[in-house]
Amino acid sequence: MTDKKPLLSGNVKEAADRADAAEQLIFESADLENGLSEARVAELIEEFGYNELEDDELNPFLKFLSYFWGPMPIMIWIAIIIEVIKASITGDGVEDCIVLSILQVVNGTVGYVEELNAGNAIAALKEKLAPECTVLRTVGGRVTRGKLKSRELVPGDVVELKLGDVVPADCMLTGNPEDKEDQLQVDQSALTGESLPKTMYAHDKLKMSSLIKQGEMKAVVVATGKNTFYGKAAGLMKIDDAQGRFQKILFRITLGLLFLSLILCAIIFTVLVVNGASTVPKLPGNSTVLRALSVVIVLLVASIPIAMQVVCTSTMAVGARRLASRKVIVARLSAIEELAGMTVLCSDKTGTLTKNELTLKPPTLFGDMDEEELTFFAALSANRKSADLDAIDKVIIEAVPTRSPTDPADRWTKEKLDSFDVIKFTPFNPVIKRTEAAMNAPNGAVLRVTKGAPQVILRMCIAAGTADATLGETVDAKIQEYADKGFRTLGVGVSYSSLDEPPAWQFQGLLSLFDPPRDDTAETIKAAIDGGVEVKMVTGDQRAIAVETCRQLEMGTEIFDTEILNSTFMSDAEKSDRIFAANGFAEVMPEHKFNIVQALRERGIVTGMTGDGVNDAPALKRADIGIAVEGATDAAKAAADIVLTEPGLSVIIDAIQRSRKIFQRMRNYAIYRIACTLQLLLFFFFAVITITPSSGAFYGDAKGPQGQAWPCVAVGSNSTHTGPVADMELPPPDGKGPHISQWWCAHEAAFVLPVISLVVITILNDGTIITIAHDKVIPANTPQRWDLWEVVVVATVLGLVACLGSMLLLVFALQSNYHQYHINDDTVSFFGNLLGQDNSGEANHYVTWGQAQTVMYLKVSISDFLTVFAARTRSFFWERRPGYALAVAFVFATGASTILSIFWPQSFNDISATNAYPSGGMRMLMAPLNTNSYAVITVWVYCLIWFIGQDILKVVTYYVIENYIRTEDNERIHAVANRAQLTTMLATDDKARPAGLRAQHSAGIAGYTSANDARVQKLEDEIRMLKKVLLERGVLGGDAGAAAAGAATGGH
């Protein structure tokens, strides 16, 4: 992903931070208690519009026209112009011009429709990702406070901003400017380039799209949409969309095919012009160059993958819609291809591996409160007025009992919570790891309550002098006891000192929470490992909790805490090895997630990372696939490639399987398209340079009246001839004209198909192959990757086999008249009987030039589409049925080609009975195959036989590649899967051990590692201190002193 440059610098930043007069007026006139009314909101939307930036979308009509202008459309336009010129000179080519125009319209329309569908799919997905904010409004006469789409905000709206929110519009913070405790930490790096969050106080202005890193305050919207700073600066901003691997692969394939096509078509053009000029009689109005150019241009159009981008984009759009139905929202289409190649998934524990359904266990008391009172005071430290309560706060508040009529007045119940007037609330953030609330008690006393990480609360109490080391050891032991059972613990502290005094925190007790694994998590992890994806747990909980959870889920218990990630004595390579070997990480901070992802990616591992908080954004961006889990903040969603709208790991694993299906469809299409291009190009290339139709060998010994050989021979019949004869021996079809060979040239100077037939092949095959987006595929058992070398090799094998089949059939067709046999006084041609015509019940054992062209048209069409069924599987084609849409497309495309070959319209022919004599040179002719009932069946059987051989060679090719050529690559791909499966086996074995042995084993490893690390760290610290003392005393000097100074300050 590319880094965005800051939009501001210097004095511009300061000016942007200040509100102008109009914005100040909006801020001062805002109703902070009731918000805006519905009628006022409607008026403001009419005045200012919705809170969204204007899109630079083209007019739909202009966008549609853009699909008729570009490299490929221009080539088709050139072909149309050539046909128009040719028609105006020779009178021929009108039909070709019409069909080329149809191709242009179909190609542009299909491209526009599919791109529109893909765009609509992406827009629908983005709509689901649209940010929301908490807004105060008066609806129906009642003041409401709830979630609203950010685009519906108007100036004057009162919004609530908290940790993880993306600022929805330009806002000004409410409150007392003199109270510096009311503050937000705001990340404006994308706008200003400032690397550190900025502290914002009441009446400060926040810019749209900034991130709230810490704190919680109310704000008034003062500008929306294009009137915000972000909207005004958007025109100056250049956002580069980094190409995914998929776009790069498509570009390389297209560029390679274009390069090959240009070279071969240039050679074909040269041969056609030279042969046409030297071997065919010159006729008035005939242009050999125009004929050759029209053929080559259309051949180039048919060869280059026009529809590749459309087909692949359509395939991914269809897949994205299906993923959305499975609660997986794709932020960018190319993420689907990258998800298919994911090898390691670093997953959150809470809510992803576990149910996020916390159960509060009876508290452990360390102060003067009872269990009910401790729970009540813990609930006081929650932001009870928040629209979306944290899961921990919710379970604690729900644990406070509701008053019953028989309860005494002093019981700690929910109704009593409202009697405490909250003065200030400090929400949780990953830095301080706790919440705090200051309030006035019903008796007027000032009270402060905090809850959070037990070690943090305990340190605060020790610092206040209300706890000692003995209590600390007791609390630590209890925390470890709970952690060994998989329980999360929270410490609760209370201070009764006034707000102008330092708090005298008293440690009151521990709350233990249990979040059980989801019912399907263990099975889902096993499915992921079977699919070659290793799941590593990444959690902020204690190591013991992580170990216990991993043990229950059979994930392996090699869990490391942050000592390894923070270690200064391990090399980067050693850290990388430890990270790769780990089954999970505990007690991590958001920055550790980034380091974990970085280390894995540097090993060449395609890594996915889940996250939900604002501080997870860097790791989500750095990962190959950033996944924002259900309930993630807007900041995390903005940084992620994929957003989940349903909790649980099974959603991710299902997305991986589906993405692999989508990847296979795109890969299969790439193989098919390369193979078809090679078949078409190489067939015409070899046909043009190796086949010389003017040779009498192809039509037998056709002689003139004096026995001379003729370069142009006709095949027909009259009262005296039933085989190949010289041109001048046949009268003109209309009984008029000269008796010379110029009037009817029965074949071309070189073998090519008519322009119209190439266009029909392109329309039928490229138009229907788009159904491959719905093909039935089975997801691979290993992560997928673009092995372009393998794709090209397999496609080349398929293309060469099809090309060889076409060349042999062409030779058989053209030599069928030469190889004849005498049976019962009849002259018989085997191929002539199968492919040739039968006029008036009299068998004529030869194949005409027009029939040969039609036979080859049918063969190329059928083998083109049959190649799809060979390309779509790594094994034999019959082992997996095609999708119904693809099967219907096959029947339609091949059926249409077969019907056309049987009833080829006479109007499409360049030579007819009434205009035969102007013919000559590069004139092309196709004849229907309805004169021989065996011709079409013969071509179909021939194609099927070669298809079976093509499929067998494909299987052999894959076998050779996997077992003899790419063995190292395949071993590396399977390494992670094998390692993950081994981990599962060890975890299963560990789960079967008695609990006591497990605890001893785990404690032994942890103790050994921790003791070693501590000793090494202590030794390093002592060395630094010694060098520092020696330096200060002047014992070290010069270079040694400089080196010691660097060591003493931790430099390198």
Automatic annotation (TrEMBL):
SUPFAM superfamilies: Calcium ATPase, transduction domain A, Calcium ATPase, transmembrane domain M, HAD-like
CC terms in the record's Gene Ontology section: plasma membrane
Entry's Gene Ontology BP terms: proton export across plasma membrane
Occurrences of domain Cation-transporting P-type ATPase N-terminal (ranges): 15-88
Keywords annotated in UniProt: ATP-binding, Hydrogen ion transport, Ion transport, Magnesium, Membrane, Metal-binding, Nucleotide-binding, Phosphoprotein, Translocase, Transmembrane, Transmembrane helix, Transport
Membrane topology: Multi-pass membrane protein
Transmembrane parts of this sequence: 64-85, 249-272, 292-318, 670-691, 791-814, 884-904, 924-948
Name this polypeptide is given: Plasma membrane ATPase
Upper taxonomic lineage: Eukaryota, Sar, Stramenopiles, Bigyra, Opalozoa
Localisation per UniProt entry: Cell membrane; Membrane
SMART domains in UniProt: Cation_ATPase_N
A Pfam family that the UniProt record links to this protein: E1-E2_ATPase
Reaction(s) catalysed by this chain's protein: ATP + H2O + H(+)(in) = ADP + phosphate + 2 H(+)(out)
PANTHER family: CALCIUM-TRANSPORTING ATPASE
InterPro entries: ATPase_P-typ_cation-transptr_N, ATPase_P-typ_cyto_dom_N, ATPase_P-typ_P_site, ATPase_P-typ_TM_dom_sf, ATPase_P-typ_transduc_dom_A_sf, ATPase_P-type_domA, HAD-like_sf, HAD_sf
Organism: Cafeteria roenbergensis (Marine flagellate)
